[in-house]
Amino acid sequence: MLAFHVNGKTVRVDVDPETPLLWVLRDTLHLTGTKYGCGMALCGACTVHLDGQPVRACSTPLSAVVGKRIETIEGVIRGSGRRVAEAVQAAWQRLDVVQCGYCQPGQIMSAVALLKSNRKPTDADIDAAMTGNLCRCGTYQRIRAAIHEAARGLA
Amino acid sequence: MDLSRTPAISHRPMDISTDTARIENQSRRHFFKGVAGLTLAIYLPHAAAAARGRAVAPKVSAFVPNAFLRIGDDDTVTVIAKHLEMGQGTHTGLATIVAEELDAAWSQVRIEAAPADARRYNNLLWGPMQGTGGSTAMANSWEQLRKAGAAARAMLVAAAARRWQVPTDEITVNVGVIAHTPSRRKAKFGELAAAAARESVPAGLRLKDPREFRLVGKQVLRKDSADKVRGEATFTQDVYLPGMLTAVVAHPPRFGAKVKSFDAVRARAVKGVVDVVAIPSGVAVLAKDTWSAKKGRDALAVDWDETSAFKLGSDAISARYRELAQTPGSVARKEGDAQAALTAAAHVLRASYDFPYLAHAAMEPLNCVVRLSPERCEIWNGEQMHTVDQMKVAELLGLKPEQVTLNMLYAGGSFGRRASKDSDYVLEAVNVARAISGRAPVKLVWMREDDMKAGYYRPAFHHALEAALDPQGRLVGWRHRLVGQSIMAGSPMAGMIKAGIDPSSVEGASNLPYAVPNLLVELHTPTDIGVPVLWWRSVGSTHTAYATETFLDEVAASTGQDPVAYRMALLGRHPRHAGVLRLAADKAGWGTPLAPAARGERRGRGVAVHESFRSFVAQVAEVTVHADGSVRVDRIVCAVDCGIAINPDTIRAQIEGSVGFALSAMLHGAITLKDGVVEQSNFHDYAPIRINEMPRVEVHIVSSAENPTGIGEPGVPPVAPAVANAIAAATGKRLRRLPISPEDLKA
Ligand code: FES
Ligand code: FES
User: Domain A82-154 sits in which CATH superfamily?
Assistant: First the structure.
């Protein structure tokens, strides 16, 4: 049994420690908001926060999170970055960012991490923080606008 | 269309399985709130008496005037969406149309995906087939859903008139409230739902004059945003059924190969692996979870029978295509005598173009969930071809179509891929479930590598163009030869292939809008290339727009004329093309100087205009070409005419997204084969653009009174030619092969 913390709760799982965190979240814990897109840290669909930092769950083995705090899209709205998450999700909805929506939990997790550490990101800051998150539907222009909008809401 | 005769009005209660309700309830909690007991509480106008006769005692009443909506006594209006929501805002658009004619409040509107039903939910532009594609969702639903909404409104009004004993024409309906002002009476839809169910559908429905629209043409926010930003929207990947196994399949490395034998010892030794089975498309490893299934699949040793496998590489295919282009093909369009014009011309321009195979690479890799029982097959999927898949599954299992239930989920993108002409991945999932005798529900998961390598691509194409100019530089002849595989062959649309012409191969080329007296468009369709091909967002126009619009630009440049003015002069008979072209040029400041380039950089502006799916889009691109040959697209100004704009913001979003999608292909996208084996596997070697490569996109919508036409695809075709023309303006180089190569653009 390996223990770690997800969205404020301690969980114990009986899973091979080499299993990527992504599949533990999805298949074992049924936290399906975290998505699979590539399995190679190329797309960002699986972005979660590990002790507050954004990581790709598909490329983070379970062994690396034992005893650590994980926050997923399901919990980010209640966690330490609650205000930021609220502002980001509200901006996303006001600007109708989503299309298919599959990449969006990962986009939001990256955006929340950015705004937690930088309340007034420039376009260049946004590029740097968000290039790891692919959106095949091409919602990038609105993602950029929504991050600025959320930043205004937090100011 | 006469509403009273449409199959939309059904006498049969809605067939919504309780399983769907359960799954939806789990993750989209607010979805069904208030209208529980979906299958029980159905009043139908014509069936109401019969239902009473059978002494059905509904728990929650709902008014179901037709197959497209349901009004609950809790005042919710549920629109039944017959089309897939794969990102284009389709569900929101369909609901907008119904809510408009119903005069509902947008806040009371809910959306539910329709089941597969060939009688009620056909795509009216496709014939007897339910499906989503070809940017037809709004176009085919416009009349149908306006009438559905108007019929329900009229029945609510009739019920109010009866209850209040007042004439119907004194009753108003406004934002979900039915009122009789003289007597100061008011009711919400929910209060009148049960009574309205007893009214009959009135004859002679009145539809609104567009000037009365309150929702259509306004900013209406998407209904799926909240679920999608919270991670609560259910995609196929998110379905977990009790006892379900996950299957990952080893597909043959070459198309057309079959399993000869396999050794599953190592696969079975992986913890979590439950079974290994051979299926027609490969070998499936079933496990308790995805990771174990993938590990098991990777541990398989499969010996493939490659007797009839396709073994050519991309270069060999291109060489074949170039050779074919030397000879006349089947004629797709002929006006005058292009050959004679070319022979007699003062100047002839020639160019040929090569386009690679392209993967759809939707963000959600392919997947499908199947539960089998002797009498029934249940499927969970984001379906683009509902009834085709339903029929093929029924055929495979020896069931009747109605024994195959499709539970519609959101699709994490598709771009045409889920409209599989062979129902490939759906049948694969069913075959896996069948191979284990249905003893557990199965979720088939294609890993990204499977999604990239196992086929169904935008076909590779070769184009050869020749233009004849007279001594004054006028375009007097145009010959356009295309070579590429047919998508429609072997598809449910194969009947549309006439005289050797698959319309989806030549669309955008055979309907060249420019006035050229001598025009010939010919097509070669090789049938011995074993690479599976499929429609890919904007289909034929993905390559025809590039070939025609860059070549015409070259022709204009060769005469020293302005590219916009040159096009305008040839578009006399195509006012909608001319309209968007003028608008895009105006808004982009065509003719004004560009901001100067930094040292070592070159800047340029280019234009393209194209019609697809009955919509018209022009784009002006501004680019910067760096010394190392890399290209940054700075800005794209778009003008679009898609008839009445149901939701202008969705139109803007679709054009923005189309720019991202098209640029990905133009700058980076290619699926290549080496001896028949696909060389790409994931997003490192098949790279969509990222946020730092996204240009500023501005969208301007032509106001129009024409019926709505497509918007999911028409933004794609003009992007690459506009950018290529801008690159040519900046560098003088004409790029004839996609994706573009920085090598060709070094300073
Ligand atoms: S699935 Fe983890 S980065 Fe793509
Ligand atoms: S919204 Fe579809 S991939 Fe981003």
Answer: [2Fe-2S]-binding domain (1.10.150.120)
Confidence of residue B620 (pLDDT cuts 50, 70, 90): very high
The structure tokens listed for B254 are 């070459």
How much is the pLDDT for B61?
A: 67
Percent of chain B with pLDDT over 90: 83
All residues at 6 or more sequence positions from B95 whose CB lies less than 8 Å from its CB, including other chains? B79, B81, B109, B111, B223
Give me the domain span that covers residue B248: 236-308+366-445
Spatial distance between the Cα atoms of A95 and B638, rounded to a whole number of angstroms: 19
pLDDT band with cut points at 50, 70 and 90 for residue B49: very low
B307 phi and psi angles, rounded to 5 deg? -55, -45
The DSSP-derived string for A84-130 is HHHHHHHHHHHTT--SS-TTHHHHHHHHHHHHHH-SS--HHHHHHHH
B657 and A36: CB-CB below 8 Å?
no
> Is there a single domain that holds both residue B484 and residue B409?
no
Instruction: Give kind and range of the element (H or E) at residue B75.
Output: none
Is the backbone peptide bond immediately before B13 cis, with ω within 30 degrees of 0? Answer: no
Chain B residues whose CB is inside 8 A of the A99 CB are 87-89, 413, 653, 657
Mutate to test the pocket of ligand 1, among A19, A26, A56, A131 (most ligand atoms within 8 A of CB): A56
Q: For residue A45, how far is its CA from the centre of ligand 1 (angstroms)?
A: 5
Q: Which of B169, B203, B230 is the last residue of a domain?
A: B230
Q: What class is the A2-75 domain?
A: alpha beta
Domain count, chain B: 3
Determine whether the shortest distance from the Cβ of A28 to ligand 2 is under 6 A: no
- Give the ipTM: 0.98
A2-75 and A82-154 agree in CATH topology: no
Say yes or no: B409 and B521 in one domain: no
* pLDDT, tens only, B118-175: 778 888 887 778 888 877 888 889 999 999 999 999 999 999 999 999 999 999 999 9
Instruction: Name residue B614's amino acid.
Output: R
Looking up residue B726, the CATH number of its domain turns out to be 3.30.365.10
- pTM to 2 decimals? 0.91
Same domain membership, residue B25 and residue B64 = yes
Q: What is the pLDDT of residues B57-84, one digit of tens each?
A: 334 568 888 889 999 999 999 999 988 8
Among candidate residues B214, B230, B246, the one where a domain is terminated? B230
